[in-house]
Amino acid sequence: MPTAEIITIGTELLLGEIQDTNTRYLARALRDLGIDLYRTTTIGDNEERIARVIEEALGRCQIIITTGGLGPTVDDPTRQAVARALGVPLEFRNDLWEQISNRILTRYGRQPSTNNMRQAWIPAGSIPIPNPVGTAPAFIGERGDACVISLPGVPREMEYLYQNAVVPYLKQRYHLTGVIKARVLHTAGVGESQIDEWIGDLETLSNPTVGLLAHPGQCDIRITAKANSQEEADQMIAELEATIRQRCGDSIYGTDNETLEDVVFQKLARQGWKLAVFESGLNGALRERLQSHGMPPEWIAVAESPYMPKDLETILRDLSHRLKAEVVLGVCLIPEEDKQSLTLLVLSPSGMLENQRSYGGPPQLAASWAIHSALDFLRRNLPTPLEEN
């Protein structure tokens, strides 16, 4: 099975002026083809440095994909850098120049400039990839069993050319038949060390593999399987997921793109209950998150000044009465000398439940931790499907 590296090119990426979304897209796309991705690199618009990075990658893997640096200006050096790394000159391709000229004429209603002609020069012997959705052609340079695939940096163009030209090329050249599939299980209310204690032996498996990724108030468990088909990968993941769920229990709240608020609102909807929220010490962060999920802002009260936890019960009962809400969540985060104290209250038809927690991590992550903790506390104290039946 071939291995791959991704090289994103552009000084604007290094300066933080734009966000690199191409690497994420390509990483997932390569995974779906069953190709192992071992390294990603971001480098500025410098021909010598780009060439050196490509040369190093050619010594480690079979597939190098670059994005960016294929524009018509002097500071678009990818073509020259790839030619330099492959040890070949640039050559002018009349077929590409015709495609570029027609594209500019039909799309912009003007004649192409001499600058645009730069885009018709590609490394000698390369396979050209015409670009019907943009003006920058792509190309594939080959050396032995390795290839350098250079794609535009514009995400829409890059994605189109990858799907329509690169995928067929990779499947044919490397006889790709396998897949790599991943599933993420989300946990809350327990730390990474506890999860590791429960499933540490599974983290040593070679296929499927198990990995942990910690976030404030949440820990993800990633299961990745290599197989000859989607069906085989699904079966491998399902068997291991069953074991993990048996060990982690209700600490697991969802999978893949599912969020804590998804789970909470699904439980509320099954009961036909309304939720009201009071937050203090979070600077409106909980309100913002719940509003983005579609919760009406008038159902979320934000304290303008810190409230003491002893006030919460009165506030929650008032909100429940005034808004006719069956469930009210209260969250109060108070900074102390070396930690942050969190008080959580949930008022529901089952009564009032309170929970006290403390956080000693980076202060800038305290609000995120508190939100995850609050939503998880609410999730655990709403009726489960078993109780509903």
Can you characterise this structure?
- This is CinA-like protein.
- It holds the Pfam family MoCF_biosynth.
- Residues 5-173 form the MoaB/Mog domain.
- By secondary structure, the protein is of the alpha/beta class.
- It folds into 3 domains: 3-174, Molybdenum Cofactor Biosythetic Enzyme, Chain A, CATH 3.40.980; 179-255, Alpha-Beta Plaits; 260-388, CinA-like (Maf protein).
- 38% of the residues lie in helices and 28% in strands.
- It has 13 helices and 17 strands.
- The strands form 4 sheets. A 6-stranded mixed beta sheet has the order 2-1-3-8-7-6, sandwiched between helices. A 5-stranded mixed beta sheet has the order 14-13-15-16-17, with helices on both faces.
- It starts with a strand and ends with a helix.
